[in-house]
């Protein structure tokens, strides 16, 4: 995969133990810092240097940490649960959060079964007893799994894998999951129950496999435990906090629950005198220190999975399992990529060409973006939407850089009151020279009193300077297409003509009469500005016939220049000898 890296290598911080298999993929192009044992304060102090952060469950990726992470593009969770990551803040900052949704599923499911068996046969207690020189065969009689009812809360990936293994053990399977896939449940011989209460009363073994979210926090507390059989045993390899630890200790003490196998706790590692530590110490509990994902195989899987995604993101591509961005298939992304570049350029051209007019009134906030041809068949246009927001806003956003991307584009557009209507045109494009093209239309119907004034506050050096003699009121239209993977602009306002939106461009509107090119060329020449290419755009067909409107003999001149054009030169271009309007844009 080509990685466009110039200058120092981007830095990746790994504050936890992550398998070297994935890290090997990073080392060639990135500086990989493995720093274990950092305090939250130490982490906050250094995070500003890093573009990627790879964590497991121990690192708390808080809002405070994310805000200090000025360069951060991605938080990669080498595992499933992202409850230790403030995904909402990451989203608002445009930081992509990725995980490995299936790399450790089997490990978690097998660990659940290991705990189930250990609890059923008193393995933990028996092990401690024999090591203490005892031989307590009478006290340590267990129960069999075969024929017992396994009640599963959360029939997702881990829950289903547990069900399949338990089926092989001859267990009867029931589950509660309001969002379960009924055919997958049936194929795994699982009977779905309509409520948690219905599930709990039948459980010989209860196992939890949901994420820790508002609806699952404290879902097994005193009231629920009291509805269960006193012979029931409880397993938790999902997350601490789903079971009320104090209530479970009490139920075990009172003989209301027979035993528990617990891998995850409300505080990890457990604080002294905490509910977690009391649960761990309980003789009827088999406890493990969050080992569900800790197999060699699972750690290899998750490491490779997230490191590949980090490489993609730092190379400007999209990951395959982002938690806060839409999933886009690699083939689809490849098709979209040149159009993403095109749309971003169109947005930036819009902002710079139209909006930095002296009083900044013309930054319209309602845009139509119309996809035609092959683009109408795409599953998602989210990357194009994000590229448009990025293009529109980047020239007027302060340079210390808001990271605008697919993660936060919608939010940012909303915050700034920019309305974007995406449309797929069903028009036949067979007679057109390109298989797909895109039109950006800024609507003139908006009341000017609502027009944004961001541009008047702009301090961006890339914001264009435009000088003009007159300002027609109509929709502002930019049209473009991709050819040979390169973006082209094919229409700007009333003018049609092809040019590549790249570098510094001087765009002049002028009467289509002799001498204009010479006039502009000579003025630029005197100012030491070199012209690299030039394109002339006559009026678009729709506007050609409007004789007598004073505009039918106009054209656009687009010149690629090798440096910025000074204010004095810009002023000198306008006039009866010269052009009607001129703007400089940097794309
Ligand atoms: N102990 C460990 O080391 C590991 C723990 N895990 C944890 O296992 C849990 C499950 O992981 P996956 O199966 O991959 O997730 P998943 O997303 O595939 O499945 C979760 C299931 O929970 C269901 N669910 C959501 N809210 C529910 C509710 N209120 N009541 C009942 N069901 C509900 C969902 O519909 C879904 O089917 C996660 O919390 C994850 O962090 C995963 C891997 C290792
Ligand atoms: O993947 C998960 O959700 C886990 O709980 C595994 O956590 P870990 O990566 O072992 O700290």
From TrEMBL:
Domain D-isomer specific 2-hydroxyacid dehydrogenase NAD-binding residue range list: 113-292
Xref: InterPro entries: ACT-like_dom_sf, ASB_dom_sf, D-isomer_2_OHA_DH_cat_dom, D-isomer_DH_CS, D-isomer_DH_CS1, D-isomer_DH_NAD-bd, NAD(P)-bd_dom_sf, PGDH
Catalytic activity field: (2R)-3-phosphoglycerate + NAD(+) = 3-phosphooxypyruvate + NADH + H(+)
Region of interest (Disordered), ranges: 442-476
GO terms for biological process, alphabetical: L-serine biosynthetic process
Domain D-3-phosphoglycerate dehydrogenase ASB, residue spans: 336-452
Residue ranges occupied by any D-isomer specific 2-hydroxyacid dehydrogenase catalytic domain in the UniProt entry: 12-324
Keyword Acetylation found: yes
GO MF term list: NAD binding; phosphoglycerate dehydrogenase activity
Enzyme class per UniProt: oxidoreductase
Top-rank lineage group of the source organism: Eukaryota
Keywords annotated in UniProt: Acetylation, Amino-acid biosynthesis, NAD, Oxidoreductase, Phosphoprotein, Serine biosynthesis
Pfam family, any one: 2-Hacid_dh
Functional pathway: Amino-acid biosynthesis; L-serine biosynthesis; L-serine from 3-phospho-D-glycerate: step 1/3
E.C. designation(s): 1.1.1.95
NCBIfam families, per database record: PGDH
Subunit structure: Homotetramer.
Family from the record: Belongs to the D-isomer specific 2-hydroxyacid dehydrogenase family.
Protein name per Swiss-Prot or TrEMBL: D-3-phosphoglycerate dehydrogenase
Lineage, highest ranks first: Eukaryota, Fungi, Dikarya, Ascomycota, Pezizomycotina
């Amino acid at each position: 995969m080509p990685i466009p890296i110039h200058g120092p290598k981007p830095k990746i911080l790994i504050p936890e133990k992550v398998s070297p298999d994935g890290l090997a993929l990073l080392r060639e192009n990135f500086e990989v810092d493995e720093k274990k044992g950092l305090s939250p304060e130490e982490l906050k102090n250094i995070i500003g240097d890093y573009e990627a952060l790879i964590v497991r469950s121990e690192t708390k990726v808080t809002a405070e940490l994310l805000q200090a992470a000025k360069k951060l593009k991605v938080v990669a969770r080498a595992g499933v649960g992202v409850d230790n990551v403030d995904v909402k803040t990451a989203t608002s900052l445009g930081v992509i959060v990725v995980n490995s949704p299936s790399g450790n599923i089997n490990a978690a499911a097998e660990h659940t079964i290991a705990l189930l068996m250990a609890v059923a046969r008193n393995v933990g207690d028996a092990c401690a007893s024999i090591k203490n020189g005892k031989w307590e065969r009478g006290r340590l009689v267990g129960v069999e799994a075969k024929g017992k009812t396994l009640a599963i809360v959360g029939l997702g990936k881990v829950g289903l894998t547990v069900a399949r293994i338990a089926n092989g053990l001859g267990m009867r399977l029931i589950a509660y999951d309001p969002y379960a896939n009924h055919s997958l449940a049936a194929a795994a011989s699982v009977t779905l129950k309509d409520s948690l209460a219905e599930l709990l009363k039948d459980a010989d073994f209860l196992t939890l496999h949901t994420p820790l979210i508002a609806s699952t926090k404290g879902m097994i507390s005193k009231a629920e435990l009291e509805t269960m059989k006193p012979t029931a045993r409880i397993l938790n390899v999902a997350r601490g906090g789903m079971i009320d630890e104090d209530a479970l200790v009490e139920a075990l003490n009172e003989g209301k629950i027979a035993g528990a196998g617990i891998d995850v706790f409300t505080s990890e590692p457990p604080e002294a005198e905490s509910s977690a530590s009391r649960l761990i110490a309980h003789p009827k509990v088999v406890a493990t220190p969050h080992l569900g994902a800790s197999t060699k195989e699972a750690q290899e899987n998750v490491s490779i999975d997230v490191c590949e995604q980090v490489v993609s993101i730092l190379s400007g591509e999209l990951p395959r399992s982002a938690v806060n961005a839409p999933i886009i298939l690699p083939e689809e992304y490849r098709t979209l990529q040149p159009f993403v570049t095109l749309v971003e350029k169109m947005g930036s051209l819009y902002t710079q060409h139209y909006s930095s007019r002296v009083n900044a009134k013309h930054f319209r906030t309602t845009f139509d973006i119309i996809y035609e041809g092959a683009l109408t068949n795409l599953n998602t246009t989210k990357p194009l939407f994000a590229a448009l927001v990025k293009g529109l806003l980047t020239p007027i956003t302060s340079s210390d850089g808001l990271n605008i991307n697919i993660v936060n584009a919608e939010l940012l557009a909303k915050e700034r009151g920019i309305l974007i209507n995406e449309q797929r045109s069903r028009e036949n494009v067979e007679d057109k020279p390109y298989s797909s093209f895109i039109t950006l239309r800024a609507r003139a119907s908006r009341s000017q009193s609502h027009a944004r004034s961001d541009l008047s506050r702009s301090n961006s050096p890339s914001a264009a300077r435009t000088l003009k003699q007159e300002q027609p009121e109509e929709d502002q239209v930019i049209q473009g297409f991709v050819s040979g993977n390169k973006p082209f602009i094919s229409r700007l306002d009333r003018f049609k003509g092809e040019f590549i939106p790249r570098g510094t461009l001087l765009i002049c509107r002028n009467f289509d009469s002799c001498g204009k090119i010479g006039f502009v060329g000579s003025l630029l020449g005197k100012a030491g500005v070199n012209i690299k290419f030039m394109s002339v755009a006559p009026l678009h067909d729709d506007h050609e016939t409007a004789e007598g409107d004073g505009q039918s003999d106009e054209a656009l001149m687009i010149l690629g220049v090798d440096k910025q054009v000074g204010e004095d030169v810009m002023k000198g271009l306008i006039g009866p000898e010269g052009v009607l309007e001129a703007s400089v844009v940097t794309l």
